[in-house]
Amino acid sequence: MKSKKVALIGPTAWALWNINYFVRENLDELGYDVRMFSWEDSKDMAKGLDWCDVFISEVSTFNKLSDDHRRKGMFCWHHLANINEDPLSEEARVKHFTTLIDVSDEFKDHFFATTTDIADSVEAYYGIRPRLLPVGADTAFWKKRDIGKINKLGFVAASNNSKGYTVVKRPEMFQEIADKAELDRVTLNGMSMLCGTAIYKDADMVICTSVSEGHPMAVFESTMAKIPFISTDVGVVKEFPSIRTFSTADEAVEIINDLNSDPEKLKRYVDDVYEDVSSKRDWMEIINKYYVPVIEEIG
Fold first, then answer.
1. Number of other residues whose CB lies within 10 A of the CB of residue 145
2. 20, 69, 241, 298: which could join 8 in a potential S-S bond, CB 3.0 to 4.6 Å?
3. CA 29 and chain centroid, separation
4. 245 pairs with which residues across the strands?
5. Each residue of 197-214: pLDDT tens digit?
């Protein structure tokens, strides 16, 4: 039985909340005492910080804490530290896609990144190399769909989009793809992750059109629900050669039409992506390889 008390501090909304959910489930199975605390409630967050032996949080919390609390923390970048290729204003840059951190050598061993690309961006921008805390895929949680034809395209996006957000996510490209493919479209948001596959129930395919991504999370969610997924070549998508990628709306339409030409081809594609992602990102394997050693070290 593990003795460490682990606090997971974050928002109560998608997508950081669902990462913490699976971290908690797997650490709990290993015998850790794991609890989730909301950073939206200052008293709840303070309670978690005082209670725990070690906590895991998004890197944006680092600037808000005392050194005593920082020494118990695992601060993780879930997005790129800097996005050079996008025409973002400084205001947009720090609000959603980049958080400016008072990085110091004293706490360099407390910084982490969910992907190698993100770690590279942190090293280039701040001069430190964070260790990895990858995100996993849960095969059992997501109820499997059986999609024989793509009729409606889904796009995961926040409901209140800033100018900087739309520059990166490119909803207008998604609309162009749907129009050219002559398919219905739906924006997916506003549901709790505990709804599971119902989050994606209105879509027969999920499409990522982003210029830059940390993940995107749909890689680990829609693909585990056996919903077809295609994307621009961003984030962790690069790690899964089975996922078909595109650079233009016309290329995306070509992929959609090809998959829709034959139900068996569509099924093979979905199964291949499912196997590719699940074999490389099993949550328990990731927890044991990356999370447990650091929890034991810091706690």
1. 16
2. 20
3. 22
4. 231
5. 888 999 999 999 998 888
The mean-pLDDT minimum among 160-164, 166-170, 197-201, 288-292 falls in 160-164
Q: Which residue has the tokens 């059986």?
A: 146
Nearest by Cα to 184 from 207, 165, 209: 207
**CA angle in degrees (0–180, nearest 5) for 143-169-59:** 80
Most confident of 117-121, 192-196, 269-273: 269-273
As given in the structure block, the two tokens for residue 124 are 């280039």
Tokens coding 8: 């997971």
Q: pTM to 2 decimals?
A: 0.91
Burial class (CB within 10 angstroms; exposed 0-12, middle 13-18, buried 19+) of 234: buried
Nearest to 259 by CA among 240, 242, 234, 241: 242
* 41 vs 9: CA distance, rounded Å: 10
Q: Is the pLDDT of residue 161 over 80?
A: no
- Strands 229-231 and 33-38, sheet pairing: unpaired
CA distance 10 to 19: 10
pLDDT digits 0-9 by tens, 7-61: 999 998 778 898 999 999 999 999 999 999 999 999 999 999 999 999 999 999 9
| Side-chain half-sphere CA neighbours of 101 within 13 A | 30
Cβ atoms of 277 and 137 within 8 Å: the answer is: yes
